[in-house]
Specification:
The complex is a heterodimer of chains A (112) and B (373).
Chain A lengths: L24 E2 L2 E2 L2 H7 L6 E2 L14 E2 L3 E2 L26 E2 L4 H4 L8
Antiparallel strand pairs in A: 1-5, 2-4, 3-4
Chain B lengths: L1 E4 L6 H7 L6 E2 L2 E2 L5 E5 L1 H28 L12 H10 L5 E7 L7 E6 L6 H15 L9 H18 L5 E6 L4 H16 L3 E6 L4 E2 L4 E2 L8 E5 L2 H6 L12 E3 L5 H4 L3 H8 L9 E2 L9 E5 L9 E3 L11 E5 L5 E2 L2 E10 L2 E10 L9 E3 L1 E3 L1
Helix pairs in contact in B: 5-6
Classes of the chains: A little secondary structure (112), B alpha+beta (373).
Chain lengths: 112, 373
Protein backbone atom coordinates (compact mmCIF):
# COMPACT_ATOMS: atom_id res chain seq x y z
CA UNK A 1 0.00 0.00 0.00
CA UNK A 2 1.28 3.40 -0.88
CA UNK A 3 0.08 6.47 0.91
CA UNK A 4 0.41 9.89 -0.59
CA UNK A 5 -0.67 11.72 2.52
CA UNK A 6 -0.92 14.11 3.91
CA UNK A 7 -1.67 17.67 3.11
CA UNK A 8 -3.97 18.02 6.07
CA UNK A 9 -4.94 21.60 5.73
CA UNK A 10 -4.57 24.11 8.46
CA UNK A 11 -7.83 25.91 8.17
CA UNK A 12 -9.60 28.76 9.79
CA UNK A 13 -13.24 27.99 10.19
CA UNK A 14 -15.96 30.31 11.27
CA UNK A 15 -17.54 28.82 14.36
CA UNK A 16 -19.70 31.41 16.02
CA UNK A 17 -20.42 30.12 19.48
CA UNK A 18 -22.87 32.94 20.00
CA UNK A 19 -25.46 31.34 17.75
CA UNK A 20 -28.42 30.48 19.96
CA UNK A 21 -30.12 27.16 19.41
CA UNK A 22 -32.93 26.97 16.93
CA UNK A 23 -32.73 30.62 15.90
CA UNK A 24 -32.44 31.60 12.26
CA UNK A 25 -29.77 34.26 11.87
CA UNK A 26 -28.18 36.55 9.34
CA UNK A 27 -25.13 38.76 9.20
CA UNK A 28 -23.77 41.40 6.86
CA UNK A 29 -20.66 41.19 4.71
CA UNK A 30 -18.50 44.29 4.15
CA UNK A 31 -15.75 45.28 1.74
CA UNK A 32 -13.49 46.45 4.54
CA UNK A 33 -13.16 46.53 8.28
CA UNK A 34 -13.84 50.26 8.21
CA UNK A 35 -17.18 49.69 6.51
CA UNK A 36 -18.09 47.07 9.07
CA UNK A 37 -17.13 49.33 11.94
CA UNK A 38 -19.52 51.96 10.65
CA UNK A 39 -22.29 49.55 11.57
CA UNK A 40 -20.84 47.66 14.51
CA UNK A 41 -18.24 47.85 17.25
CA UNK A 42 -14.72 46.82 16.28
CA UNK A 43 -14.86 43.62 18.29
CA UNK A 44 -18.01 42.59 16.41
CA UNK A 45 -16.25 42.67 13.04
CA UNK A 46 -14.12 39.79 11.81
CA UNK A 47 -12.45 38.69 8.57
CA UNK A 48 -14.78 36.78 6.28
CA UNK A 49 -12.94 33.59 5.62
CA UNK A 50 -13.37 29.91 5.96
CA UNK A 51 -11.53 26.71 5.30
CA UNK A 52 -10.93 24.87 2.12
CA UNK A 53 -9.61 25.20 -1.33
CA UNK A 54 -12.70 27.06 -2.39
CA UNK A 55 -12.42 29.83 0.13
CA UNK A 56 -14.88 32.62 0.58
CA UNK A 57 -14.60 36.31 -0.12
CA UNK A 58 -10.88 36.08 -0.41
CA UNK A 59 -10.53 39.76 -1.21
CA UNK A 60 -10.30 40.88 2.38
CA UNK A 61 -14.00 41.09 3.23
CA UNK A 62 -15.35 41.34 6.75
CA UNK A 63 -18.54 40.24 8.39
CA UNK A 64 -20.50 41.69 11.25
CA UNK A 65 -22.15 39.69 14.03
CA UNK A 66 -25.10 37.38 13.58
CA UNK A 67 -28.48 38.97 14.23
CA UNK A 68 -31.91 37.49 14.43
CA UNK A 69 -33.60 37.14 11.05
CA UNK A 70 -36.93 37.72 12.71
CA UNK A 71 -36.72 41.23 14.14
CA UNK A 72 -39.92 40.88 16.09
CA UNK A 73 -38.39 38.01 18.06
CA UNK A 74 -34.92 39.49 18.50
CA UNK A 75 -33.46 39.30 21.98
CA UNK A 76 -32.59 42.46 23.88
CA UNK A 77 -28.89 41.96 23.25
CA UNK A 78 -29.31 41.16 19.55
CA UNK A 79 -26.81 43.32 17.59
CA UNK A 80 -29.36 44.12 14.91
CA UNK A 81 -28.91 44.49 11.14
CA UNK A 82 -26.48 47.39 11.40
CA UNK A 83 -26.65 51.03 12.32
CA UNK A 84 -26.26 52.56 8.87
CA UNK A 85 -27.55 49.62 6.93
CA UNK A 86 -26.20 51.07 3.71
CA UNK A 87 -22.62 50.03 3.10
CA UNK A 88 -22.53 46.28 3.32
CA UNK A 89 -21.71 44.69 0.01
CA UNK A 90 -23.61 41.47 0.23
CA UNK A 91 -25.91 41.26 3.17
CA UNK A 92 -26.25 37.58 3.68
CA UNK A 93 -29.74 36.70 2.69
CA UNK A 94 -29.74 33.21 4.11
CA UNK A 95 -31.02 32.34 7.49
CA UNK A 96 -28.48 30.33 9.49
CA UNK A 97 -28.39 28.29 12.65
CA UNK A 98 -31.03 25.85 11.44
CA UNK A 99 -28.66 22.91 11.85
CA UNK A 100 -26.37 22.16 14.76
CA UNK A 101 -28.63 22.67 17.73
CA UNK A 102 -28.79 19.02 18.79
CA UNK A 103 -25.03 18.67 18.57
CA UNK A 104 -24.48 21.74 20.71
CA UNK A 105 -26.93 20.37 23.25
CA UNK A 106 -24.89 17.20 23.62
CA UNK A 107 -27.08 15.19 21.31
CA UNK A 108 -26.36 11.70 22.61
CA UNK A 109 -22.67 11.36 21.91
CA UNK A 110 -20.46 12.67 19.15
CA UNK A 111 -20.18 11.13 15.75
CA UNK A 112 -19.17 7.53 16.28
CA UNK B 1 -5.27 -13.11 17.01
CA UNK B 2 -3.13 -12.09 19.93
CA UNK B 3 -2.07 -9.01 21.85
CA UNK B 4 1.60 -8.05 22.00
CA UNK B 5 3.19 -5.71 24.51
CA UNK B 6 5.60 -3.17 23.00
CA UNK B 7 7.78 -0.25 23.95
CA UNK B 8 6.23 2.91 22.48
CA UNK B 9 8.32 5.06 20.19
CA UNK B 10 9.84 7.74 22.43
CA UNK B 11 8.61 10.56 20.23
CA UNK B 12 5.24 9.04 19.38
CA UNK B 13 3.16 12.09 20.40
CA UNK B 14 4.94 14.32 17.89
CA UNK B 15 4.72 11.66 15.21
CA UNK B 16 1.00 11.08 15.51
CA UNK B 17 0.29 14.80 15.87
CA UNK B 18 2.11 15.41 12.60
CA UNK B 19 -0.36 13.06 10.97
CA UNK B 20 -3.39 14.89 12.33
CA UNK B 21 -4.01 12.90 15.50
CA UNK B 22 -3.72 15.75 17.99
CA UNK B 23 -6.44 14.16 20.12
CA UNK B 24 -4.19 11.24 21.06
CA UNK B 25 -4.70 12.02 24.74
CA UNK B 26 -8.12 12.92 26.10
CA UNK B 27 -8.84 14.14 29.62
CA UNK B 28 -5.34 13.06 30.58
CA UNK B 29 -5.86 9.49 29.40
CA UNK B 30 -4.18 8.03 26.31
CA UNK B 31 -6.44 7.39 23.34
CA UNK B 32 -3.75 6.29 20.89
CA UNK B 33 -1.96 3.38 22.58
CA UNK B 34 1.14 1.87 21.04
CA UNK B 35 2.45 0.13 24.14
CA UNK B 36 0.60 -2.81 22.66
CA UNK B 37 -0.62 -4.03 19.30
CA UNK B 38 -2.76 -6.83 17.96
CA UNK B 39 -1.31 -9.46 15.66
CA UNK B 40 -3.32 -11.50 13.16
CA UNK B 41 -2.71 -14.20 10.61
CA UNK B 42 -3.52 -13.62 6.96
CA UNK B 43 -6.30 -16.21 7.23
CA UNK B 44 -7.89 -14.26 10.07
CA UNK B 45 -7.80 -11.09 8.00
CA UNK B 46 -9.48 -12.98 5.16
CA UNK B 47 -12.25 -13.98 7.55
CA UNK B 48 -12.79 -10.40 8.66
CA UNK B 49 -12.77 -9.11 5.10
CA UNK B 50 -15.31 -11.67 3.96
CA UNK B 51 -17.53 -11.05 6.98
CA UNK B 52 -17.50 -7.29 6.39
CA UNK B 53 -18.55 -7.51 2.77
CA UNK B 54 -21.16 -10.14 3.59
CA UNK B 55 -22.65 -7.95 6.28
CA UNK B 56 -22.74 -5.02 3.91
CA UNK B 57 -24.71 -7.11 1.41
CA UNK B 58 -27.15 -8.21 4.10
CA UNK B 59 -27.62 -4.59 5.14
CA UNK B 60 -28.43 -3.53 1.59
CA UNK B 61 -31.00 -6.31 1.37
CA UNK B 62 -32.51 -5.09 4.61
CA UNK B 63 -32.77 -1.54 3.28
CA UNK B 64 -34.46 -2.85 0.16
CA UNK B 65 -36.94 -4.84 2.26
CA UNK B 66 -37.78 -1.83 4.41
CA UNK B 67 -38.16 0.44 1.42
CA UNK B 68 -40.39 -2.04 -0.41
CA UNK B 69 -42.59 -2.25 2.64
CA UNK B 70 -42.72 1.51 2.83
CA UNK B 71 -43.22 1.49 6.59
CA UNK B 72 -40.30 2.97 8.45
CA UNK B 73 -42.16 3.42 11.72
CA UNK B 74 -40.33 0.52 13.33
CA UNK B 75 -37.17 2.62 13.06
CA UNK B 76 -38.87 5.57 14.75
CA UNK B 77 -38.28 7.79 11.72
CA UNK B 78 -40.80 10.64 11.33
CA UNK B 79 -43.33 9.78 8.64
CA UNK B 80 -42.80 13.07 6.86
CA UNK B 81 -39.40 11.82 5.77
CA UNK B 82 -40.30 8.28 4.65
CA UNK B 83 -40.95 9.05 1.00
CA UNK B 84 -37.80 11.15 0.74
CA UNK B 85 -35.70 8.30 2.15
CA UNK B 86 -37.35 5.78 -0.14
CA UNK B 87 -36.66 7.97 -3.17
CA UNK B 88 -33.02 8.28 -2.13
CA UNK B 89 -32.73 4.50 -2.27
CA UNK B 90 -34.64 4.11 -5.51
CA UNK B 91 -32.50 6.76 -7.21
CA UNK B 92 -29.41 4.90 -6.16
CA UNK B 93 -27.88 7.80 -4.26
CA UNK B 94 -24.29 6.63 -3.74
CA UNK B 95 -22.83 6.01 -0.32
CA UNK B 96 -19.24 6.45 0.74
CA UNK B 97 -18.24 4.51 3.81
CA UNK B 98 -19.13 2.89 7.10
CA UNK B 99 -17.69 0.90 9.96
CA UNK B 100 -18.96 -2.39 11.31
CA UNK B 101 -18.23 -3.05 14.95
CA UNK B 102 -17.50 -6.75 15.26
CA UNK B 103 -16.81 -9.19 18.04
CA UNK B 104 -14.06 -11.57 16.92
CA UNK B 105 -11.61 -13.73 18.80
CA UNK B 106 -9.71 -15.28 15.92
CA UNK B 107 -11.63 -18.53 16.20
CA UNK B 108 -15.41 -18.09 16.01
CA UNK B 109 -17.03 -16.27 13.07
CA UNK B 110 -17.06 -12.47 13.47
CA UNK B 111 -20.42 -11.18 14.65
CA UNK B 112 -21.89 -7.76 14.05
CA UNK B 113 -22.54 -5.64 17.10
CA UNK B 114 -23.62 -2.60 15.11
CA UNK B 115 -23.07 -0.69 11.89
CA UNK B 116 -21.85 2.91 12.07
CA UNK B 117 -23.22 3.68 8.64
CA UNK B 118 -23.78 7.42 8.89
CA UNK B 119 -21.09 9.21 10.88
CA UNK B 120 -18.23 6.79 11.57
CA UNK B 121 -15.09 8.21 13.16
CA UNK B 122 -11.76 6.76 14.37
CA UNK B 123 -10.84 7.20 10.71
CA UNK B 124 -7.52 9.05 10.76
CA UNK B 125 -6.00 6.64 13.23
CA UNK B 126 -7.20 3.63 11.22
CA UNK B 127 -6.34 4.98 7.76
CA UNK B 128 -3.12 6.88 8.37
CA UNK B 129 -1.61 6.80 11.85
CA UNK B 130 -1.47 3.06 12.30
CA UNK B 131 -0.08 2.68 8.78
CA UNK B 132 2.91 4.88 9.59
CA UNK B 133 3.24 3.01 12.89
CA UNK B 134 3.44 -0.25 10.89
CA UNK B 135 6.14 1.05 8.59
CA UNK B 136 8.29 2.10 11.52
CA UNK B 137 7.56 -0.53 14.17
CA UNK B 138 6.65 -3.63 12.16
CA UNK B 139 8.32 -3.02 8.79
CA UNK B 140 8.14 -6.67 7.81
CA UNK B 141 4.46 -6.94 8.57
CA UNK B 142 1.34 -6.06 6.66
CA UNK B 143 -1.86 -4.38 7.71
CA UNK B 144 -5.54 -4.72 6.85
CA UNK B 145 -5.70 -1.16 5.60
CA UNK B 146 -6.47 0.26 2.18
CA UNK B 147 -8.71 2.98 3.56
CA UNK B 148 -6.82 5.94 2.15
CA UNK B 149 -6.69 4.64 -1.39
CA UNK B 150 -10.26 3.37 -1.36
CA UNK B 151 -11.58 6.70 -0.08
CA UNK B 152 -9.80 8.53 -2.90
CA UNK B 153 -11.11 5.98 -5.39
CA UNK B 154 -14.65 6.35 -4.10
CA UNK B 155 -14.53 10.14 -4.10
CA UNK B 156 -13.20 9.93 -7.65
CA UNK B 157 -16.15 7.77 -8.66
CA UNK B 158 -18.55 10.22 -7.03
CA UNK B 159 -16.90 13.14 -8.82
CA UNK B 160 -17.16 11.36 -12.16
CA UNK B 161 -20.81 10.62 -11.46
CA UNK B 162 -21.44 14.31 -10.75
CA UNK B 163 -19.64 15.33 -13.93
CA UNK B 164 -21.63 12.88 -16.03
CA UNK B 165 -24.78 14.50 -14.68
CA UNK B 166 -23.45 17.89 -15.76
CA UNK B 167 -22.92 19.08 -12.21
CA UNK B 168 -19.89 21.00 -10.97
CA UNK B 169 -17.89 18.88 -8.52
CA UNK B 170 -17.84 21.37 -5.67
CA UNK B 171 -18.10 19.79 -2.25
CA UNK B 172 -18.81 21.37 1.12
CA UNK B 173 -17.76 19.34 4.14
CA UNK B 174 -19.53 20.03 7.37
CA UNK B 175 -19.99 18.96 10.97
CA UNK B 176 -19.71 20.22 14.51
CA UNK B 177 -16.24 21.75 14.44
CA UNK B 178 -16.25 22.40 18.16
CA UNK B 179 -15.61 18.67 18.55
CA UNK B 180 -11.91 18.28 17.75
CA UNK B 181 -12.12 14.66 16.65
CA UNK B 182 -15.01 15.42 14.32
CA UNK B 183 -13.20 18.40 12.85
CA UNK B 184 -10.04 16.42 12.23
CA UNK B 185 -12.06 13.66 10.59
CA UNK B 186 -13.73 16.19 8.31
CA UNK B 187 -10.37 17.76 7.45
CA UNK B 188 -9.03 14.34 6.56
CA UNK B 189 -12.07 13.69 4.39
CA UNK B 190 -11.44 17.05 2.72
CA UNK B 191 -7.91 15.92 1.98
CA UNK B 192 -8.94 12.69 0.25
CA UNK B 193 -11.82 14.37 -1.62
CA UNK B 194 -9.43 17.06 -2.86
CA UNK B 195 -7.02 14.40 -4.06
CA UNK B 196 -9.96 12.92 -5.97
CA UNK B 197 -10.48 16.19 -7.81
CA UNK B 198 -13.27 17.85 -5.85
CA UNK B 199 -13.16 21.58 -5.14
CA UNK B 200 -13.72 21.57 -1.40
CA UNK B 201 -14.76 23.97 1.35
CA UNK B 202 -15.29 23.51 5.07
CA UNK B 203 -18.38 24.82 6.78
CA UNK B 204 -19.55 24.41 10.35
CA UNK B 205 -22.96 22.79 10.35
CA UNK B 206 -24.48 25.78 12.13
CA UNK B 207 -23.23 28.05 9.32
CA UNK B 208 -25.22 26.23 6.65
CA UNK B 209 -27.72 28.74 5.36
CA UNK B 210 -31.20 28.53 3.84
CA UNK B 211 -32.23 31.38 1.56
CA UNK B 212 -35.75 30.18 0.92
CA UNK B 213 -34.79 28.30 -2.23
CA UNK B 214 -31.63 26.31 -1.49
CA UNK B 215 -28.90 25.71 1.06
CA UNK B 216 -26.01 28.19 1.01
CA UNK B 217 -22.51 28.62 2.35
CA UNK B 218 -21.18 31.77 3.98
CA UNK B 219 -20.66 33.41 0.59
CA UNK B 220 -24.31 32.74 -0.30
CA UNK B 221 -23.16 30.19 -2.86
CA UNK B 222 -25.51 27.26 -3.33
CA UNK B 223 -24.37 24.06 -1.64
CA UNK B 224 -24.80 21.35 -4.23
CA UNK B 225 -22.85 18.49 -2.66
CA UNK B 226 -22.39 18.07 1.07
CA UNK B 227 -20.36 15.66 3.16
CA UNK B 228 -21.75 15.86 6.66
CA UNK B 229 -20.32 14.31 9.79
CA UNK B 230 -23.49 15.10 11.63
CA UNK B 231 -26.15 12.46 12.30
CA UNK B 232 -29.20 12.31 10.11
CA UNK B 233 -31.54 11.87 13.06
CA UNK B 234 -30.30 15.17 14.49
CA UNK B 235 -30.72 17.02 11.19
CA UNK B 236 -34.29 15.80 10.80
CA UNK B 237 -35.18 17.18 14.23
CA UNK B 238 -33.68 20.61 13.59
CA UNK B 239 -35.16 23.77 12.12
CA UNK B 240 -33.81 23.23 8.60
CA UNK B 241 -34.68 19.56 8.46
CA UNK B 242 -37.86 20.16 6.50
CA UNK B 243 -35.85 21.91 3.77
CA UNK B 244 -34.05 18.66 3.03
CA UNK B 245 -37.20 17.29 1.45
CA UNK B 246 -36.60 19.43 -1.63
CA UNK B 247 -33.76 17.12 -2.69
CA UNK B 248 -31.71 20.06 -3.94
CA UNK B 249 -28.46 18.77 -2.57
CA UNK B 250 -26.39 15.62 -2.92
CA UNK B 251 -25.47 14.48 0.56
CA UNK B 252 -22.92 11.92 1.72
CA UNK B 253 -23.97 9.73 3.42
CA UNK B 254 -27.27 9.61 1.51
CA UNK B 255 -30.61 9.59 3.35
CA UNK B 256 -31.15 5.84 2.99
CA UNK B 257 -28.04 5.23 5.09
CA UNK B 258 -29.98 6.39 8.14
CA UNK B 259 -31.88 3.11 7.99
CA UNK B 260 -28.60 1.30 8.67
CA UNK B 261 -27.12 3.58 11.30
CA UNK B 262 -30.30 3.08 13.29
CA UNK B 263 -29.73 0.15 15.66
CA UNK B 264 -33.27 -1.05 15.09
CA UNK B 265 -31.80 -2.49 11.89
CA UNK B 266 -30.27 -5.22 14.08
CA UNK B 267 -33.75 -6.60 14.73
CA UNK B 268 -34.66 -6.36 11.04
CA UNK B 269 -31.51 -8.24 10.04
CA UNK B 270 -32.14 -11.02 12.53
CA UNK B 271 -35.70 -11.42 11.27
CA UNK B 272 -34.50 -11.64 7.69
CA UNK B 273 -31.44 -13.80 8.28
CA UNK B 274 -32.03 -15.84 11.44
CA UNK B 275 -29.05 -17.86 12.62
CA UNK B 276 -26.72 -16.17 10.15
CA UNK B 277 -23.18 -16.79 11.42
CA UNK B 278 -22.29 -13.08 11.41
CA UNK B 279 -25.42 -11.88 13.22
CA UNK B 280 -26.66 -12.00 16.80
CA UNK B 281 -30.28 -12.44 17.90
CA UNK B 282 -31.84 -9.00 18.20
CA UNK B 283 -35.31 -7.63 18.80
CA UNK B 284 -37.17 -4.50 19.85
CA UNK B 285 -38.69 -6.67 22.63
CA UNK B 286 -36.55 -7.75 25.56
CA UNK B 287 -38.75 -10.80 26.17
CA UNK B 288 -37.84 -12.39 22.84
CA UNK B 289 -34.11 -12.48 23.61
CA UNK B 290 -33.36 -15.35 25.95
CA UNK B 291 -30.54 -15.06 28.45
CA UNK B 292 -28.26 -12.10 28.97
CA UNK B 293 -28.49 -9.34 26.42
CA UNK B 294 -27.36 -5.82 25.66
CA UNK B 295 -29.88 -2.97 25.63
CA UNK B 296 -28.96 -0.23 23.16
CA UNK B 297 -30.60 3.07 22.22
CA UNK B 298 -31.47 2.89 18.55
CA UNK B 299 -29.84 6.29 18.01
CA UNK B 300 -27.05 5.89 20.54
CA UNK B 301 -23.41 6.65 19.85
CA UNK B 302 -20.08 5.78 21.45
CA UNK B 303 -21.62 3.33 23.89
CA UNK B 304 -23.81 5.98 25.48
CA UNK B 305 -26.66 4.43 27.51
CA UNK B 306 -25.72 0.89 26.49
CA UNK B 307 -26.50 -1.58 29.30
CA UNK B 308 -25.77 -5.24 29.79
CA UNK B 309 -28.84 -7.02 31.16
CA UNK B 310 -28.45 -10.27 33.07
CA UNK B 311 -30.33 -13.41 32.06
CA UNK B 312 -33.28 -12.63 34.32
CA UNK B 313 -32.99 -8.86 34.16
CA UNK B 314 -35.87 -6.98 32.54
CA UNK B 315 -35.58 -4.03 30.16
CA UNK B 316 -35.00 -0.63 31.70
CA UNK B 317 -38.24 0.66 30.25
CA UNK B 318 -36.65 3.46 28.28
CA UNK B 319 -38.14 4.15 24.86
CA UNK B 320 -36.32 3.61 21.58
CA UNK B 321 -34.27 0.58 22.56
CA UNK B 322 -33.13 -2.59 20.80
CA UNK B 323 -32.06 -5.78 22.54
CA UNK B 324 -29.20 -7.88 21.25
CA UNK B 325 -27.97 -11.21 22.61
CA UNK B 326 -24.82 -10.77 24.64
CA UNK B 327 -21.62 -11.67 22.79
CA UNK B 328 -18.76 -10.68 25.09
CA UNK B 329 -15.70 -9.14 23.53
CA UNK B 330 -12.57 -11.29 23.76
CA UNK B 331 -10.26 -10.31 26.59
CA UNK B 332 -6.49 -10.05 26.11
CA UNK B 333 -4.32 -9.17 29.12
CA UNK B 334 -7.42 -7.82 30.81
CA UNK B 335 -8.43 -5.67 27.83
CA UNK B 336 -11.73 -6.12 25.97
CA UNK B 337 -10.97 -5.80 22.25
CA UNK B 338 -13.42 -4.58 19.59
CA UNK B 339 -12.87 -4.78 15.84
CA UNK B 340 -13.99 -1.78 13.79
CA UNK B 341 -14.07 -3.03 10.21
CA UNK B 342 -14.34 -0.40 7.50
CA UNK B 343 -16.17 -0.60 4.23
CA UNK B 344 -15.76 1.93 1.43
CA UNK B 345 -17.89 1.82 -1.70
CA UNK B 346 -19.06 -1.66 -0.79
CA UNK B 347 -15.54 -3.09 -0.35
CA UNK B 348 -13.83 -4.05 2.89
CA UNK B 349 -11.15 -1.43 3.43
CA UNK B 350 -9.38 -2.04 6.71
CA UNK B 351 -9.85 -2.11 10.42
CA UNK B 352 -9.10 -0.41 13.69
CA UNK B 353 -9.08 -1.98 17.14
CA UNK B 354 -10.38 -0.36 20.30
CA UNK B 355 -9.80 -1.82 23.73
CA UNK B 356 -11.06 -1.08 27.21
CA UNK B 357 -10.92 -2.53 30.72
CA UNK B 358 -14.72 -2.73 30.72
CA UNK B 359 -16.94 -4.73 28.35
CA UNK B 360 -18.57 -1.73 26.66
CA UNK B 361 -16.51 0.30 24.19
CA UNK B 362 -16.94 4.05 24.57
CA UNK B 363 -15.39 7.26 23.26
CA UNK B 364 -12.58 6.91 25.81
CA UNK B 365 -11.60 3.38 24.75
CA UNK B 366 -8.07 3.17 23.43
CA UNK B 367 -7.16 2.76 19.77
CA UNK B 368 -4.45 0.11 19.39
CA UNK B 369 -2.66 -0.56 16.08
CA UNK B 370 -2.50 -3.95 14.42
CA UNK B 371 -0.52 -5.94 11.91
CA UNK B 372 -0.66 -9.32 10.27
CA UNK B 373 1.97 -11.68 8.98
Amino acid sequence: MTLTVLGLVATVVVVDKAIPRGTELRRNVYASRADCERDYAADQCAPQNSGGSGGYYTGGYYHGPYYSANRSQAAANDPGPGRSGAVHVAAETSARGGFGAVGRAGGGGRAA
Amino acid sequence: MRRETLTPRPDWPAKVEALGLDFHTQAGEPYWWEAACYAFSADEIDVLEEATETLHRLCLEAVDRLVQGGDLSRLDIPQAYWRWIVESWRRGDPDLYGRFDLVYDGTSPPKMLEYNADTPTALIEAAVVQWYWLEEVKPGGDQFNSLHEKLIDRWTALRERASRAGRTPALHLSGAFAELEDRRTIEYMQDVASQAGWATSLLDVSDIGWNGRFFTDLSETQIRFLFKLYPWEWMLREAFGRHLLGDLIGIVEPPWKMLLSNKAILAVLWEMFPDHPHLLPASRERSTIGGACVEKPIHGREGKDVRVLGAAEPATGHRGRVYQALAPLPVFDGWHALIGSWIVGGKAAGMGIREDRVPITTNTSRFVPHYFA
